[in-house]
Amino acid sequence: MRTVVITGGTDGMGAALARHHLRAGDRVAVVGRSRAKFDALLAAAEAEGALSPAGRARFLAADLSLLADNERVIDRLRQHYDRIDVLVLAASFIRQKRHVTAEGREASWMLFLVSKYLFVTGLADRLAAAGRPVIVNTAVPGTRPDAIDFDDLELAGRFTFSRANAQQRRANELLGILATRNADLSYITWGPRNLVRTSFAGETGPVMKWTAALLAPLVGQDPGDAVRPVIRLIDDPRPGRAAYRGAKEAGLVPGPDDEGDAERLARAVERMVTG
Ligand SMILES: NC(=O)c1ccc[n+]([C@@H]2O[C@H](COP(=O)([O-])OP(=O)(O)OC[C@H]3O[C@@H](n4cnc5c(N)ncnc54)[C@H](OP(=O)(O)O)[C@@H]3O)[C@@H](O)[C@H]2O)c1
Q1: Ligand 1 pocket mutation pick from 13, 92, 94, 119 by most atoms within 8 angstroms of CB
Q2: Domain that holds residue 17
């Protein structure tokens, strides 16, 4: 029985993966904010034929834009599991404007990078205990190698949505360099090929709201269909880093000093975390 941890596992593509793994007989830990969504997920998995999903599923409530919640949940995961086979990083809350959390941190940088860094590093030994561990990071691959502003990671001075998004995507590719220091580990940066009919959780402007409300129901892919390529990648992992859009492999975009950038990113996040 595999142990699968899914952040953002209560909704959208994370929930589709959680249901799949419950049907497949795996042990599944879902991290999210809504217990009600988790209960609905269990009911759906059972209706789809999963056997006693409640006995194999665990819900960990957390706001992953908060450092304290990340640390608490990672501690609990470490207490519960000696081995983690699959880690899916799919928590998402789209903010078009800069938002500062109660801890005084930029919310999107925390959710889309710092939280992922903490899960990858904080669970590294649990992943190493698995034979063929896999991390799936749902960050759309392929962005400029110079997208990170190392002097202002939380973009206090010059926040725009596209700048923040590019920076997070680049940082998530660098996170793969740190993760695959475990040579047995498969780290997949994955984004869907098309729009997917999900909740699009977030605080967005009218254009994005209309896209989600009007376009997604019409042309958006079903989340269960969208994650099929992810399921195949998880079932037959290849050690090392790779990037995919849907089922199609996408080239990783190398920069002039990726190793150096990955180290610099790790140092910056560690400094931030230790205060
Ligand atoms: N949908 C698309 O077309 C599309 C396209 C490109 C890339 N993606 C990427 O695919 C991934 C999954 O997206 P999705 O559209 O499936 O997501 P979604 O339906 O919007 O679901 C978001 C998930 O993240 C959780 N979440 C949100 N804020 C959180 C927080 N502060 N702390 C903890 N959990 C939080 C939500 O849980 P609760 O509701 O329980 O809080 C929910 O489970 C994301 O990385 C997204 O950027 C999606």
Answers
A1: 92
A2: 3-274
